[in-house]
DNA sequence: TCGTCATTTCGGGCATTGACGAAATATGAA
DNA sequence: TTCATATTTCGTCAATGCCCGAAATGACGA
């Protein structure tokens, strides 16, 4: 992961509606939710939400697939994993044990 | 974690310099690095960097402790952990197995 | 093909954020 | 106390992000 990609992802999540969208999709799981249903559930205007979904998609956080007339949005769990790894890369100069459980758990310490 | 706290954290990380600062501190570990040294290493103006450090601190991502004349900044690993948990909360409606390894690993699925 | 539903694109207007230098504050040493 | 180092605060400027309605596009069924 490049720094710019990480910034795109963090920027995408740094917004009330977009964060709510992503968390909604996470709760729903890989099956996906149609755009208009997301708008309905979050009480957002379809045009505004469409822009937010585009941002999330450009950041790689969600993926979109068409099912008939609808477009289903689903979360991309791998992108979260990559983001955390990037954030904690080379944690504590390689001594991951010094940083608590998450870094080693996420595999973000120095690779042996 | 509240949604607003998560947004503060994501906003803080959604910036080239601030993200570089945080990753630098992660690499350095819990010992901490003085503000001016961070500025020197990242080639940033001290006044500009001071603002960025304040943003990171307000977001709970770093902590500051004074050592003599200097102020040492260190990463707050717990905040990253909380952020990931918040992001993946109730993943896949509780069926964490459906989402890949990270959610269950991070303890972000539905609590049994 | 035609109409309809689902979604996206576009343009305008408002608010927020970021960079920088100069000056202010805080700490330790002589 | 007085000086020097370390860091923060402040004011100004430019740039970016966001919301919304109206219109355009895409896909399906009659």
From TrEMBL, chains A, B:
One of its GO terms (molecular function) is DNA binding. PROSITE patterns: HTH_ARSR_2 (PS50987). Gene3D superfamilies: Winged helix-like DNA-binding domain superfamily/Winged helix DNA-binding domain. Keywords: DNA-binding, Transcription, Transcription regulation. Residues 1-95 form the HTH arsR-type domain. It comes from the Bacteria. This is Transcriptional regulator, ArsR family. It comes from Alloyangia pacifica.
